[in-house]
Each structure stands twice: as C-alpha cells, then as structure tokens.
C-alpha cells in the first residue's frame, strides 16, 4: 500500500468519527426543547411579538446622528443639506421607533394578558412624543459636552469629547432612554442603557433623574440607580456607586416604585470608588465627597467628606538607605 492509500484511509476514518459526534447532537436538542415546555420566562419562540435588540441599537445610532449632526454620518453635512439630512433621519427614526414601541406594548399585553390597548396607534403617537423631545435633549447634551471641556484639562476640544468620551456616550444614551422611560414605554429604555453599559462600563438606569451639565470622568464602574436624583453641574469619577441599601429577598415587589437611591444636589463633586447608598441620603449642594468613601447618611451643603490619610508601610530597602 502506497502513502496516498494510507492517507486516504486515515481521512475516511476521521470523517466517520466526526460524523458519529454529529449524531450525538439531536439528544441535546431534544433535552433543550423539552426544558422549554417546563418554563415560561426565559425562552421566546413562536409568533409572540418581541422588540428587536439590533433595531433598538440602530435607533440609538440614528438618534446620535440627529443630536450631533455631522459627527456620525457617512456623508458630509453642510448648511445646504442640513435640513434634508436631519429630516430624512428623523422620518426614518419615527418609523423604526414606532415599530419597536408597538412590539414592546404587544409583548407586555401578551405577558400580562391585558385587553387590547390599540398598540399600533399608541406606538406611533408615543414615537412622535419622543421625537418632540429631541431639541430639549440636544440642548442638555450641549451642556454635558461643555461640562466635560470645563472639567477635564485633558480634553482637547468638542470633537474629541463627542467622538471618544465614554461618559458622553453613556449620558447620551441615558437621556434618550430617559424620555422613553417617562413615556412609560416597556423594555426599550432598559435595552438602550444596558447596551451603553456594555460599551462603556457605565450603568445608568433610565429612570434616574439627572440635571444639566453632568460630567462623568473616565467612568468605568459607575453605577446610578433607578430612583437617583442628580442636580445640575454634578461631576463624578470612575467607580462611583449611587445605589440602594441592602434589600430583603422579596424586594422586587415590596420596594418597586419607592425611592431607594440617593439625591445629589447641585454642584457636587464625587471622587473615584465612592459608594453612596439609600433613598433618604442627600448630598447637599456644593459638597465634595472624596475617594473611597462609604456613605449611608446625608451630608449638609458646602461640606467636604474626606478619608483620613492612611499610614503607608514601606517593606524592603528604601532608595538612598542601607
């Protein structure tokens, strides 16, 4: 037997072995399908309506193109075609958002077994209501960009901030989602902010209330809970948590729609890795909260809260010493 015959035989043996492995897959598929019939919360087959995650992300990108004209478009925008470009984007936004809102309401109706609430008409009406908020969102974002320029000496200009700052991306998505949240649109606002969370490491619940000129510096690990209230001109750094106190096991039902997260008044600065918890906790205006602080009680206005400097211990030989 020559070498070619040996190689051919070996290849055939390997193919047979791989084919045998494929035959093991149907048993796993049967088990997964059987498991689906035993639960009703984690699978979604069939004709039940459900929003499209990819379409909602596309809506975010379309909103950014409208709110920051010229920054995220493939074609150049100039004074001659500005209205045309914004008009086209806004019309397509209205159509795409209407579809997703309709699906979100239909899903909620199905899950909660509610009577028909005329989802299609409602979806188009609420999409228009959201679009009417875009000028106000644009004005707020302008103050956020300006706050980044004023608060970060490393910022080289507006373009750099809009294109590259994760805080601006997270705040932009939050401000879009917050308006949808206020319109009581199911699921879509949370999909938006969790997408931004996955991209930036900044977790802002769409229910939080945040004033103008908000700046998140660096941003990784920031968490802002649903009932947080933040005033104007607030600056926070990476690792800051504005969260809830420890809640009992059944907290989902008992504490829903109750204030669980702190209030941060105007002109407050919160440095990195600080945790502020509790719905009754208020950080007074113009206060400065240092890094690595844990707070569960209110702070009066014009207060500095700092950690006592720890003692540093140097092990081994110090430079310049024997």
Write a structural description.
The protein folds into two domains: 153 residues, serine acetyltransferase, domain 1 (Orthogonal Bundle), CATH 1.10.3130.10; 89 residues, Hexapeptide repeat proteins (UDP N-Acetylglucosamine Acyltransferase, domain 1, 3 Solenoid), CATH 2.160.10.10. Helices cover 47% and strands 10% of the residues. The chain has ten helices and 14 strands. A five-stranded parallel sheet has the order 1-4-7-10-13. Strands 3-6-9-12-14 form a five-stranded parallel sheet. The protein is globular and about 75 Å long. The N and C termini lie far apart (77 Å). The mean pLDDT is 89.
CATH superfamily of the largest domain: serine acetyltransferase, domain 1
How are strands sequenced across the largest beta sheet? 1-4-7-10-13
H and E string: HHHHHHHHHEEEEEEEHEEEEEEE
Distance between the termini: 77 Å
Helical/strand content category: alpha/beta
Envelope shape: globular
**Amount of helix:** 40-55%
Q: Main sheet, how many strands, which sense, barrel?
A: 5 strands, parallel
User: In terms of quaternary structure, what is this?
Assistant: single chain
């Amino acid at each position: 037997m020559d070498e070619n015959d040996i190689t051919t035989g070996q290849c055939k043996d390997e193919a047979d072995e791989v084919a045998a492995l494929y035959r093991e897959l149907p048993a796993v598929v049967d088990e997964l399908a059987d498991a689906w019939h035993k639960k009703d919360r984690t699978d979604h087959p069939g004709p039940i309506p459900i929003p499209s995650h990819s379409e909602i992300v596309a809506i975010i990108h379309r909103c950014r193109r409208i709110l920051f004209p010229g920054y995220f478009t493939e074609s150049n925008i100039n004074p001659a075609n500005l209205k045309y470009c914004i008009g086209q984007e806004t019309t397509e936004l209205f159509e795409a958002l209407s579809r997703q809102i309709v699906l979100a309401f239909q899903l909620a109706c199905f899950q909660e077994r509610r009577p028909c609430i005329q989802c299609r008409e409602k979806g188009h009406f609420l999409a228009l209501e959201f679009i009417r908020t875009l000028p106000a969102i644009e004005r707020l974002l302008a103050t956020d960009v300006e706050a980044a320029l004023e608060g970060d000496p490393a910022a080289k200009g507006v373009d750099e901030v809009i294109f590259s700052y994760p805080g601006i991306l997270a705040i932009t998505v939050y401000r879009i989602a917050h308006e949808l949240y206020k319109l009581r649109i199911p699921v879509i606002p949370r999909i938006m902010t969790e997408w931004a969370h996955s991209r930036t490491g900044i977790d802002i619940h769409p229910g939080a209330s945040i004033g103008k000129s908000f700046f998140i510096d660096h941003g990784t690990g920031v968490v802002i809970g649903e009932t947080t209230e933040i005033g104007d001109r607030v600056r926070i750094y990476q690792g800051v948590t504005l969260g809830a106190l420890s809640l009992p096991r059944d907290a989902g039902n008992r504490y829903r729609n109750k204030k669980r997260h702190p209030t941060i008044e105007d002109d407050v600065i919160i440095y990195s890795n600080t945790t502020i918890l509790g719905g009754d906790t208020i950080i007074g205006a113009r206060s400065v909260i240092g890094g690595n602080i844990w707070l569960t009680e209110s702070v009066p206005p014009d207060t500095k809260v700092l950690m006592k400097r720890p003692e540093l211990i140097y092990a081994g030989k110090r430079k310049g010493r024997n």
